[in-house]
Specification:
By secondary structure, the protein is mainly α. It has helices at about 5-20, 25-95, 140-150; strands spanning about 100-105, 110. It is elongated, with a radius of gyration of 36 Å.
């Protein structure tokens, strides 16, 4: 039996008691049975909550382990990429210093080429507005709104909702 069905049954028993269709002993027995069913169901659901919370904590631990693993892999990848860039720059500097434009090998060709120029911004303050992109993010200050509403102010577009929860100790 589902919890909502037990609750409906309890309401029906209360209605029968109010309509005096049950004598006191029948009503007491029936309510005891319904209360026992309700208590057993809540106990089962609470155990399920505990099991689900334990699984969620285990998954969160695994997520944290994977994040650490990804961070470690990312760090290693960046280190390797940095090493590749350094070695390529090393070859390029020495080819330019020796005025060598191209070296051909059976498996690859190494050459110094002109790439697309890179822009470096030395002082953003003096760059004309036509060459500036503005990125903005608009978010509501929920803490400030909550305090204002608690102080009795009306904030258009916002409301304070009741936030109840179940505490299991």
């Amino acid at each position: 039996m589902k919890l909502y069905e037990i609750s409906q049954g309890m309401a029906e028993v209360e209605a029968l008691i109010l309509e005096e269709e049950l004598d006191a002993d029948q009503a007491a027995d029936l309510m005891d049975q319904m209360n026992d069913l309700f208590s057993d169901k809540v106990q089962g659901i609470t155990r399920l909550i505990g099991n689900l919370e334990m699984k969620a904590r285990a998954i969160k631990g695994e997520e944290e382990r994977l994040v650490e693993l990804v961070e470690s892999a990312k760090s290693r990848r960046k280190s390797l990429e940095h090493r590749v860039d350094w070695l390529a720059d090393y070859i390029q500097r020495h080819m330019e210093a020796n005025q060598i434009k191209k070296l051909e090998y059976p498996e690859f060709v190494v050459s110094v080429v002109n790439r697309t120029p890179v822009v470096r911004i030395n002082d953003l303050e003096v760059v004309p507005d036509d060459y500036i992109k503005v990125k903005t993010s608009v978010v509501a200050d929920k803490v400030k709104i909550r305090e204002a509403i608690k102080d009795g102010k009306s904030i258009p577009g916002a409301e304070l909702l009741e936030n109840k929860g179940l505490r299991i100790k």
